[in-house]
């Protein structure tokens, strides 16, 4: 097997490092979106997120070569994730205001986040983050299909474990939601930056710059 060569082992090491970073980001999104739900629905939302990420990553991994050739795909994914980030920020702000009103005895109970809202946020974020993960892993695992498969399995396992932990943590310490949001914002802006660098030469050529 190609994985037992020095090149294969190096590729595997690179993939593990990428998975540790990107699977963690994905887990933050799932945990943040699921944290506003009732405990029974939270587990279902996390399961939906993991299944969606699994299906998306398998689908994207199967067309990796074609994806790497699509100019502007990374930029589009980053913009999509930025939109999810903005929606989550509004929810966190609304929940914080509601908590403050509740403590002062002034506020009325606002409707809880629905399962559908959480699941939609998770799936949309999964689309862009799975794209980023697959492109990054594919870049490290070139010509090593076994490494690509191992990387896919590792990222899904780490995501499931971390998302449950993060959702529970967010319910106990609400301020951590802002830390999670900052992580997602960084990933989105990083994707937009890298996508812009990729697209810029083509835009400059089209405008004669």
Question: Quick summary of this structure?
Answer:
This protein is mostly helical and 209 residues long.
Percent in strands: under 5%
Bulk shape: globular
How many domain units? 1
Helix fraction bin? over 70%
Any key phrases for this structure?
209 residues, mainly alpha, globular, single chain
Give a verbal description of the structure:
- It contains 7 helices and no strands.
- The chain has 209 residues and is mainly α.
- The N and C termini lie far apart (48 Å).
Which helices and strands, and how do they pair?
Blueprint: H1 6-34, H2 39-62, H3 64-68, H4 73-104, H5 115-140, H6 145-172, H7 176-207
């Amino acid at each position: 097997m190609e994985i037992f060569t020095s090149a294969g082992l190096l590729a595997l090491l690179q993939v593990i490092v990428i998975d540790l970073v990107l699977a963690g980001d994905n887990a933050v999104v799932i945990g943040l979106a699921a944290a506003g739900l009732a405990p029974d629905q939270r587990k279902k939302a996390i399961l939906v997120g993991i299944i969606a990420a699994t299906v998306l990553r398998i689908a994207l991994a199967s067309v990796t070569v074609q994806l790497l050739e699509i100019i502007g795909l990374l930029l589009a994914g980053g913009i999509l994730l930025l939109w999810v980030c903005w929606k989550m920020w509004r929810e966190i702000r609304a929940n914080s205001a509601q908590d403050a009103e509740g403590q002062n005895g002034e506020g009325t109970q606002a409707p809880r986040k629905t399962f559908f809202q959480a699941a939609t946020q998770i799936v949309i974020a999964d689309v862009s983050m799975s794209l980023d993960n697959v492109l990054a892993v594919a870049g490290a695992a070139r010509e090593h299909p076994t490494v690509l498969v191992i990387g896919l399995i590792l990222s899904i396992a780490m995501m499931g474990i971390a998302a449950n932990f993060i959702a529970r943590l967010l319910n106990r310490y609400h301020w951590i939601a802002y830390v999670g949001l900052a992580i997602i914002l960084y990933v989105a802006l990083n994707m937009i930056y890298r996508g812009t660098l990729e697209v810029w030469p083509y835009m400059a050529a089209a405008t004669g710059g």
